[in-house]
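Problem: given the chain below (479 residues), write out its structure.
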Amino acid sequence: MAPCSCLNRIHFRRSTSTRLSKNGWHDRADRQMDTDMTHDVEQTDKQGTWMHDLLVRLYPICRSLAAPGNRETLSILSEFVDLDVVEVASGTDVFGWTVPDEWHPKSGEITGPDGTVYARFEDNNLHLVNGARPIDQEMDLADLLPHIYSLPDQPDLVPYVTSYYHPIWGFCMRHADKAALPPGRYRARIDAEVRPGHLVYGEAVLPGTSDREVLIDTYICHPSMANDNLSSVVTATALYKRLSELPRRHYTYRFIFVPETIGSLCWLMNNEDAAVPKIHAGLVLSCVGDDGPFTYKRSRQGNTEIDRIAQQVLGDKGVSTDFFPNSGSDERQFCSPGFDLPIGMLSRTYPGQWPYYHTSGDTPERVSPQTLAGSLDMAWRFITALEANSVRYSRTDPRGEPMLSKFDLYHRQNVRRNTDMDAERLSRGTLMWLLNLADGSHSLLDMAERSGADIVQLAQWAERLVEVGLLVSAVEGEA
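Solution.
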């Protein structure tokens, strides 16, 4: 399918002043892919603080599927990401879906019989049903209550409710406040405009030596909620910054910041014949800001390279689950049978299972700089493993085991050790597996799965063995 004729592209040039070492970002021109995942603690803390500051800056903005808040969000992100902003016109058919009109909320509140104001949009943009139509009408409490949404099981939280495709008006309140509304006449007022416009999404590409692409997707349509999904937006932004500082990348990296579901479908429609066939692997980032363990949801295929890498890099920090289509995020579109792409989803607590999911309890205070930095480092482990696995290694002389002590890779005196406690011996075991399996046909991922060794440690040893002349390397797809 050719790109939609009703889309426009607007280019935002990233400011070059954003790579500041005080924020913990390297500005060394010679920085290579970092296979040492033990980042400097101070640097990691600074990056987490930078990410949290950006999250706080984005938090007050009211976003939707198509809304001015989305443009404002992308404009802020363009300070750090070299974004193209793509517009898709309202009414466009996208695989049977229809791009909605733009929603421009301005104000809204409920005024009680005694003049008390409830559910004021200016206090919290979750008080309006996202997509709510305008109204200015007086009515009895009994007529108003069906238009007020609340959570009886979480009476102190305001729910996040949407109605993108079906025109309604409505408010969201704490259930405790709703239950305490006195009888009488109320005025319901929503000042909002719904008009044809555009859905917008942001896209940025970091070229590699290969045209095979790694897709990083996250969604920008949720209003004032921190974990879902500003945590993922700032993590993707920070990941872009790290990758952009590398002088050499094997894969080409494509970042997209889209409204959930309809936005990823628009991107697929516009790139079905261009970028989609080049996708080698991908990650959807969702809800990576809480303090729960990581959850990786495998692609529909279930055993792609990115799925296998997840098993290696998560370790004891998370779990990998099978694909299922009944919940999640944009991976459901990428893994639909017509595309069936090798893309999984990375989250912390799985979306919907965190107690503050889709409520006013999802605030910046519940997302710490430390968890954001940890999510960035986990995403970086995925990228590092993908890059490392693009290289094949072969022994320069495959006959027997090399005499490692000649290269200061083995102790010169053989002393009995407590093997359960000997970290050096465990690392040397990784080295011996590498030397045995480095025959040009085994990838580092193959070696990690067979030996139980860490793929990043295998890559570190491989680089060392190339330096001393025991291995030679060849990158996939390169002569």
